[in-house]
Records
---
Amino acid sequence: MVDYEELDYLYSREALSKLSKNPKKVYKNGLVALFITSLMVGNLNKKKEEFSDNIRFCKDVLKNPLKYQNEQSLKLINNMVQLKLKVVFVRNPDSEDTKNKIIKMMRSVIKFNLNGDRYLIMYEELDQLLDAKSLLNLLYQNSNPNIRNHHWIEFDLEKSLVHTFPEFITYADLISLWNIYLEKNDLSVREAALQTNRINIRIIDSEIHALHISLWTQAVTFVESYLYYIFYNIRKGNYSLSSTKAQGFIRSTKPDDNQIFESLILPEFKNDDNQVQISKIISLHGKYKSINNTRNRFIHASAFYDSNQPHLLPLISSGSHELLDTLETCTGLVIEIEKILPSALKILFWWDSVQHPIFNEYKKGNFIKRTDI
C-alpha cells in the first residue's frame, strides 16, 4: 500500500517549495489527509483506496496548482480536513502549527521506514498532538487501561498506531516456537522422513533440539520482559512505593530479573492477605532460578565444569518433560505475580484475548485470535 520513496518526495521541502499561497495550503491539507487515512484500521481495502486517492490529489495539486487558487475551494478543503482531524481527536485542528507538526511527524515515519526501521513515539509526545487515549480506545476494543506517558507507540502507515508491550511480543514468540516444535514432533512427519531417508530423521531431531533450546530460552525471556516492564512502569510512572527496600531499589540503573523479584515485587506487594499466593510465587521463582541457570548454560555453552558437572550437560541431555515443566513454570510465575499487583500496575490486560497453549497436553496456542491487540 505504501510507496515510501513516493511519499518521501511528496512530503519533501522541495515539493512544497514549488507551491505558494492557496495551492500550497491545499497541498498541505492533502498531506494531512494522508496522515488521517494512515490512522484507519479495519477495512484495509478501503484504507488503500483512500490512501491512493489522497496521493493522486497531492500529485494533481503539484501538477496543476492553478486549479486550486480558488478561495472557496480552499475553504471547503480546510473545513473537510479539520472535521476529520476532530474525528481522530487531534488537538487544535484549525491551527496551521498543528498541520506543520503532522507533516514533520510523517517525515520522520517515512525516513525511518526508508532506513528499514520501525517508528516509535513516546505516548507523552503523541498525546501533545492528539488525545491518544481517546483515539486508541476508538481504534481498538482492547486498549490498555493502564497506558502511561512513558509507553512506546509504534506508528505504521499501514497498521496505524500500535501500543507496544514487551511481554506480549516475547509471549507471542514463545507461542510461535511452541507451535513449530509440535509440528516437528508430529509422528506422521517423522514417519514420512524415515521412509525417504534416515538422514532426514537426524535432521528433524537436530531441528527439534534447536527448538527445545530456543523454547527454554524464550520462556525465561518472557519472564524477564514481564519483570523489567513492571520495574520500568513503576520507575517511570513515579508509582508511590511503601517499602523502604523497594524505594531504594527502584533507583537501580542495571537491575536483573531476580533482583526485581526479591527487592521490589516481594517487599512491596507481600501482605497478610496474600501469604498463600506469595508462598506459591516464591516456590515458582525458586524453580525459575534453576531454569534460568540452565538457560545460561545454553547461551554460554562451554567445556568448563563445576563440582564434576560439565557445563555442556544441559545442552545434550534436557528432555521434553523438563521442557514442559519449564514452560509451565515460567508462564505460571508471571500469572501469579500479576495477581498480586495493584490494578494500576497490571499489564496483562491482553491475556484473556489470547488462545494459550496447553503445554502438558501438547496443544498449540494462537496469539492472533484477536486483531485488536
Note: The beta strands are 120-122, 152-156, 160-163, 305-306, 309-310.
---
Amino acid sequence: MNNKFMTLILFLSILLIGSDQYAFAVSGLSIRLVQFLWIIFTLLMFFSKKITISKKQFILFLLFLLAHVVSLSFSKDAKRSLGIIFWCFYNFLFITLPVMSYSRINPRKLNKILEIGFEIQGVMIIITFIIGLFGVEVPFLYTNFYMKIPRPALWFYEPTFLATFMLIYFAHSCYFYFQEFKSKYLYKALRSFFYVLFTTSLTGILGLFFTIGVIVFFSKSISRNKKVLYAIIIILFIAAIGFFIKFRYPALYTVLFGRLLENGFQGAGGGRVTGMHQTISIIKRNFWIGVGPGAYVTLYKYPPTNAILQLFVSVGVFGFFFSIIWFLYPIMVRSKYNKYKDLFYSYRFSYLVFFVILQANTNYMRLYHWMLIGIVLGLSTCHKSELSDENCD
C-alpha cells in the first residue's frame, strides 16, 4: 500500500512539476503547490529508508551551495539572495535527492512514470491547441495567443518553458530509436515531435533541430552513408510540414517559422538577444563577485535571458566555476552498471539537449532541471547489488 501511494505521489509530482501557474506568494517567495507533493514524496522515501547519495555527488552540491552562500555577503539584495539559497537547498533535498535515490532502485518504473506523464501533457497540448483555434481556452490551463494562433502552456509559465520540458521526451525517444531502430521508439519520437511543435515555441522548434542534428551526426550506431540518408529524409519531412502549413495555414506558419526566417534571432527572440548583451555588460562590471543570487531582478527590473549568464552574473567568476560543475557533471558522468546503460545514456543525452536549450530561457532553478539532474545521477550509480529481483524485472 505504501509503495502504491509513493508511486502515486511521484507520478503527480512529475506530472505537475512545471505548474508555475498554480502558486502563491509568501514574503516575496513564489511557492508552487506541487512543491508540497515533493516534500511528501521525500518523506515517504526517507521513512522507507530509501534515500541514498554518493560522497562525490554530495560534495559537488556543497560546492554549488557554498558559492551561493559566499556571494550572499556581497549581494546587492541580501533578502532575495537568501531566498535563492533556500530554494537551492529545497531543490536538492526534496527533488534531486529523492529522484536520484528512486532512480537507483526503480529505474524502469521511474522511466514508465516519466513517459506516461509526458504523453498526458502531450495529448493536452494537442487538445488545447485544437480548441484554441476556435478562440476557446481550457479552464485552469494557460494558453497564449499570437495572431489568433493558440500557444499552449498548460500549467507552465509560458509556452517556451513547456516546449523545453517536452524536449526531454523527444530526445529520450530519439536516442532509443537510433540505438535500437524499433518502431515503438519511432512512434514516440514522432508524437513528441508534434507535442513540441504544437507549443508553437520557437525555442522548442530550434530544440527539435538541435536534437535531430546531434543524434544523427554523432551517433556511433549509424554508418556514414545512412547518416546522409537520414539527414535527407528528416530535411524533406520537416520541409514538407513547413510547406503544407505555409500554404494551408499561413498564420500558423508565421508563428512557427516565419518569425525566425523574416526577423532573425534578434527580432524573433522576444528581447532575449538584447537581454543577453545587457547581462554580459553587467557581468563585466561585476566580474569577480557578481551582484548576488536573485539581485539582478532588483537592480534591473527583469531577469537575465540566459541561464549560464544568470549564474555568472549572480555569483561572479569564482562562484561560477564551482557552481557550473554541478550542472555539467550529469553530462560528463558515466554509467557504472551496464544493465541500465541505454536508459542512463538516453537521459544523459536528454539532459544535454535540455541544458543547451535552457540557455534560451532564464532561471537555472527550474524544478524539472533539478529533477533531471537527479535522474541522470541516480542512473549513473545504479548497481546490481542495490537492486531487488522485483526491481530488476
Note: The chain has one domain: 2-392.
---
Amino acid sequence: MSSPRLTRTELKHLAQEALMQGIGSQLSYWRPQDYDTAIPDGQQEELREVMQREADRVAKLFGYKDGAWRI
C-alpha cells in the first residue's frame, strides 16, 4: 500500500529542510583545500564568514531564523 500523496506545500517544506541540512553539513565539514581554486591563507576565514552570511540569507528566504543551518 502506498502512502498518500504529499501536498505541494509539504513537498516544499521537505525540500527546504533537506537544503538546510545540506548547507549545515557543507559548512560543518568545509575545508579550504577542498576547492580547485586556491584560497589565500588570509581569506579563508573571510570566505567562511561570507558562506555563513549567505546560508543565513537562504534560511531567511525559507522562513527560518539566522543560524538555522547549524547542526
Note: Residues 20 and 58 are 8 Å apart (CA to CA).
